[in-house]
Amino acid sequence: MSGLSEFDLIECYFRPLITRDDVILGVGDDAAILAVPNDTQLVVSMDALVADVHFAADDEPYGIGHKALAVSLSDMAAMGADPAWVTLALVIPEVDESWLAAFSEGLLALARRFEVQLVGGDTARGPLCVALQLHGLVPCGQAIRRSSAASGDLVCVTGTLGDAGLALRLRQQYGRGHQDPAREYLDRRLDRPDPRVREGVTLRGLASAAIDISDGLSADLGHILKASGVGAELTVDAVPVSDAFLRCTEGMDTDDALALALSAGDDYELCFTLPESRLGDLEEAARGWDVPWHVIGRITEVEGLRFIRGEDGNPFTVERAGYEHFR
Amino acid sequence: MSGLSEFDLIECYFRPLITRDDVILGVGDDAAILAVPNDTQLVVSMDALVADVHFAADDEPYGIGHKALAVSLSDMAAMGADPAWVTLALVIPEVDESWLAAFSEGLLALARRFEVQLVGGDTARGPLCVALQLHGLVPCGQAIRRSSAASGDLVCVTGTLGDAGLALRLRQQYGRGHQDPAREYLDRRLDRPDPRVREGVTLRGLASAAIDISDGLSADLGHILKASGVGAELTVDAVPVSDAFLRCTEGMDTDDALALALSAGDDYELCFTLPESRLGDLEEAARGWDVPWHVIGRITEVEGLRFIRGEDGNPFTVERAGYEHFR
Asked: Closest to A6 (Cβ–Cβ): which among B25, B88, B324?
């Protein structure tokens, strides 16, 4: 056990790498003081990641730090907000300086990429757990909600689905050791998700509703449908999957692989809805994106989520409704 | 294990009891949307409470909920901020509905008292831990910092010190079972701290520096001194203690009891500094307070914290510098 106090800890490892003009007072007082520009609203999301629930306790700490922030950035992306400030509650079983150095490096590298400043936090001793509060900003009235999808809107997703879920399943079946480039790609999708922050900001004033895919497409789109009082019909053959996903599911039952893409969590892509009349605007806007996007279905007046195959229009049944804690 | 999902959990137990006009969107989306008034700054503090570190796992859940919010409200008080919105990350080993009902009742009763709305959160399964992010508001530039105490300023505290620390020591020595009214008073000070929110708001534009006493007077005043680059001389006989404290320390060594008042944590009173010329203004302002206040010393140019006895001016030595995790 080190002689580091909790104050030293925060000072030592989490000293911010970037300094934003709107941070009046950062780490080091009872609370941070922040300047919210006029004509903007504050968007806040809180996420807790627990060892052996959201990640393995022996995962490399750089990745845990990355993922903790990525999960919250993904929430901001789904609201169309520009991320700004983060506070961190870190519960650790002991002061392991190399673990802390790597954890904070992973978190702060991603923070720097999106110009997010760590402005405060708390540390305590206990079973490994990371809680993170992210603050973002949107022009007044422009945050994207779950509740505004309308019948006839297109259902779209960024990137590819099922990669993280497949990585987890393969890791559980075969362990971590491998030298397969396709599995390495999938592992990276699971361990180092890329939050779609720039994409989300572009969707402001364009998407009618949005959510990030953390619990699986079925479950998360389900939240949009419930909040908006509508249903949706998805074409499962239109759901985008990666080459690595195709390669690693070669021996698998096709419907089983599809179900994974439709219901496995942790991809942190965006699912959004769009009036068909805005499709041209989306094409224009998405030219600056890091990822492709695809139309995968349509919002319906009839409630509920239905899947059809592409060619024949036959219904397709998904067994698993997505991951939820406490089930 | 219940069939409640994490979404139901938040909806069921943490549905806000009050609704603030400045909450544009509360619980139920990827993030909350909040309106920060022009000419105000945002003040944010994050606190983590871990079972068997900050409270006993078998403490009554109402009290855990109360204390989790009280700790953060106390940070707001120390900044002179009006508390506004709270988000909660709750990690629980299992879904125990009666535990959750009592925990949320304790938290929300205090939230209602200070017109704080719960606007979001996350739940996960794991070892019991509560992380809480509180958001407050101050008129631009009026937050009270730790760093502005000046030589010659008076050092003041609200309420009485050492009650919570004594309650904890007695509980550790003799267990919980007793029917002593004085010990009941001390227990209440430990388990249901009253954050000095109204007092803190009054101190805006009056106190030169402030901090809340969570780790003990010596340690917390030490933070003001370090941040302000000054020292202080405290008169230990002027440090206010309660009648219950006096009664329950009757058999104890006097210096030992004094050391407890000077260095035990968890009282959540405010320690603040004040230019002597503002003493009249403080007397005026403090008429509306729920608690008394006392001058206990003076800020000095010479760095470091020194204690003297009242009558003879002799130095007094405190053994314990205050509680810190990871020590």
From this structure: B324
The helix (H) or strand (E) run that includes residue A139 is: strand A129-139
| Interface contact A50, partner B, CB < 8 A | yes
Sign (positive/negative) of CA torsion B244, B248, B251, B257? negative
3-state DSSP assignment of residue A232: strand
Structure confidence at residue B327 as a pLDDT band (50, 70, 90): very low
Q: Tell me whether A254 touches chain B (CB under 8 Å).
A: no
> Measured between CA atoms, how close is B58 to chain A, in angstroms?
16
Side chain identity at residue A127, one-letter code: P
Please, which residues 213-252 of chain B have a Cβ atom closer than 8 Å to chain A?
Answer: 223, 227
Interatomic CA distance for residues B7 and B9, integer angstroms: 5
Contact across the interface for B5 and A48, Cβ inside 8 Å: no
Q: How many domains does chain B have?
A: 2
The pLDDT of residue B137 is above 80: yes
Minimal Cα distance from A138: which residue of B? Answer: B33
What CATH number is associated with residue B86? 3.30.1330.10
Q: Are residues A260 and A172 part of one domain?
A: yes
Rounded mean pLDDT of chain A? 90
Question: The domain containing residue B59 runs over which residues?
Answer: 6-139
Residues 6+ apart with CB under 8 A from B18: B111, B112, B115, B116, B117
| B6 and A CB contact within 8 Å | yes
Q: Which residues contact B172 (CB under 8 A, 6 or more apart)?
A: none
Question: Which residue of B323, B326, B327 to mutate against A (max A Cβ within 10 Å)?
Answer: B326
A234-279, pLDDT tens digit by residue? 999 999 999 999 999 998 888 889 999 999 989 999 999 999 999 9
Q: CATH number of the domain that A187 lies in? A: 3.90.650.10
Coil, strand, or helix at residue A156?
strand
DSSP states along B235-255? EGGGS---HHHHHHTTTS-HH
Chain Cα centroid distance, residue A49: 13
CB contact under 8 A, B120 and A46: yes
- The rounded distance, in Å, linking the Cα atoms of B46 and A6 is 14
The reply to whether residue B87 touches residue A324, judged by beta carbons under 8 angstroms, is no
- The tally of CA atoms less than 13 A away on the side-chain side of residue A199 is 26
**DSSP E strands: which ranges in B114-195?**
117-125, 129-139, 154-158
User: Does any domain span residue A197?
Assistant: yes
Q: With contacts defined as CB-CB under 8 Å, which chain B residues touch A36?
A: 36, 41-42
- The 3-state DSSP class for residue B62 equals helix
Judged by a CB distance cut-off of 8 A, whether residue A325 touches chain B is yes
Q: Do A44 and B87 touch (CB under 8 A)?
A: yes
User: Does the pLDDT of residue B233 top 70, yes or no?
Assistant: yes
How far apart CA B314 and CA B308 sit, in angstroms, is 5
B9 vs A: CB within 8 A = yes
Of A115, A139, A163, the last residue of a domain is A139
